[in-house]
Design brief:
The chain has helices spanning about 1-20, 290; strands at about 90, 110-115, 135, 155-160, 180, 200-205, 220-225, 245, 265-270, 285, 300-310, 315-320, 325, 330-335, 340-345, 350-360, 360-365, 370-375, 380-385. The strands form three sheets. It has a ten-stranded parallel beta sheet with strand order 1-2-3-4-5-6-7-8-9-10, with no helix packed on it. Strands 13-12-15-18-17 form a five-stranded antiparallel beta sheet, with no helix packed on it. It has a four-stranded mixed beta sheet with strand order 14-11-19-16, with no helix packed on it. It is mainly β. The termini are far apart. The longest helix has 21 residues, at about 1-20. It has a domain at about 290-385: Immunoglobulins (Immunoglobulin-like, Sandwich), CATH 2.60.40.
């Protein structure tokens, strides 16, 4: 009896010793599903991670493997994952917690993150920071400083719909590169603040509704924002200031919104916009372009919609107007004299196109539409593209195309703009360093 009891005690001792090792930074080859749960679990993991794993403070700290659905949820979970130029794939519902997935693929790597992810203070901070590309799904980057330095240095940063909800969320998104943010995003103070400052920034409809939201969007490059946007005080303040600025209808309807948007003159803001104090104050382009010039020009809007296939692929256009490029959700405004005008799309290999127009008589054949324009009515054509997987595609997606040729094809210059006022120097708000919590982590 005593021998049996001693054996049991010994077995328990071994079990407890193993448990203590596992919770004190053990590094298994593989973190199976629902494993590595608890403080300091699987620190430095180098193997695969199963679903619902790495959920606890400091869990899978400095992990180098891909992260599946519902993983890395806790204080500092998966902190510094694939930091030095590595690639990281994170599933849905992951990286929820203070500092979760901090510095994922930070030094030039590529990060792909699923929906409902990066939720919490500093979540996904520095993701794909150093010239890397990053893609975050819908309903993500929700929390103060979430996705703060995403794709900041010449990279391409793509964020889905209903994202960037939190103070400073997506703050430097695609700062020196490209930034694409979906509909209904950037809803808190300073959210999407420096989005695509020196490159190209595209933000969807019903976006930029927080104070100073999208403040420097596409300031020195191309800034495109959808309809019903820039509804917060000083939102979209410098949109396309020294580059090209296109803002949709019913936008810039708050104090100071779009203040310097399109100051250099390359600007189009849609109807029913800029109806608040100081809104669009320094805009030197056109507001309600079709309404202001309907006695002289025919106004044409060319829109691009990708029905199926990869998004963020550029499509070239040519014809009677100066060449331009469009991506999914973008539009090109053209002022033209009356007469017969052609618009032709040059789709990459493997893409089908159909064309629908309204406002003027038209004939569509293949990828070309012929318009019969008269001065006054607005003509709007949408090019719908569908990718055919079976087709051989020898041309890679043209990532990084911009909106060019704004107001191409106009027969006479637009009315002279007032001399541009020199904008005050851009000063970024001071952001406190991320808090690292009880784990005692420092960077």
């Amino acid at each position: 009896m005593r021998k049996t009891r001693n054996a049991v005690v010994a077995a328990l001792g071994i079990f407890l010793a193993l448990a203590l090792v596992a919770t004190d930074g053990a590094t298994p080859e593989t973190a199976e599903a629902a494993s590595c749960t608890g403080a300091n679990a699987c620190v430095g993991n180098t193997g695969n991670i199963g679903e619902n794993a790495c959920n606890g403070d400091n869990a899978c700290f400095q992990n180098t493997a891909d992260i599946p659905d519902n993983a890395c949820n806790g204080l500092n979970a998966c902190y510094q994952g694939a930091e030095n130029g590595g690639d990281a794939t994170i599933g849905e519902g992951s990286c929820t917690g203070q500092n979760a997935c901090y510095r994922i693929a930070a030094e030039g790597g590529t990060a792909t993150i699923g929906e409902d992810s990066c939720v919490g203070l500093n979540a996904c901070y520095y993701i794909a920071q150093g010239s890397g590309d990053s893609t975050v799904g819908d309903d993500s980057c929700r929390g103060e400083n979430a996705c703060y330095y995403m794709g900041v240095n010449t990279g391409v940063a793509v964020v889905g719909d209903l994202s960037c909800y939190g103070k400073n969320a997506c703050y430097y998104n695609g700062y020196d590169g490209e930034s694409h943010i979906g509909d209904g995003s950037c809803y808190e103070e300073n959210s999407c603040y420096y989005s695509g400052v020196t490159g190209k920034s595209t933000i969807g409809m019903q976006a930029c509704h927080g104070v100073d939201a999208c403040y420097y969007n596409g300031q020195a490059g191309n800034g495109t924002i959808g309809d019903f946007s820039c509804q917060g005080s000083d939102a979209c303040y410098y949109n396309g200031q020294s580059g090209v600025s296109i803002i949709g209808e019913a936008s810039c309807r708050a104090n100071g919104a779009c203040y310097y948007a399109g100051q250099a003159g390359n600007s189009a803001i849609g109807h029913l916009s800029c109806n608040d104090t100081d809104a669009c104050q320094q805009n030197e382009g056109t507001i309600g372009v079709c309404e202001e010039n309907d006695d002289i020009f025919a106004c044409v809007i060319i829109r691009k919609t990708v029905v199926s296939g990869p998004l963020h692929v550029a499509f070239d256009f040519t014809g009677s107007f100066d060449p331009f490029e469009l991506m999914d959700g973008e539009a090109q405004y053209v002022l033209s004299s009356a007469g017969t005008r052609d618009v032709e799309e040059l789709p990459p290999t493997g893409w089908e196109v159909t064309i629908e127009c309204e406002g003027s008589p038209y004939t569509a054949q293949g990828s070309t539409v012929t318009l019969q324009l008269v001065a006054g009515p607005l003509t709007e054509c949408t090019f719908f593209n569908r990718f055919v997987p079976e087709a051989e595609n020898n041309r890679p997606p043209n990532i990084g195309a911009g909106l060019s040729g704004l107001f191409a094809g106009q027969p006479t210059p637009l009315p002279s703009a007032r001399p541009a006022t020199t904008a005050p120097a851009a000063v970024a708000p001071t952001i406190s360093p991320p808090r690292t919590g009880d784990g005692g982590l420092a960077r």
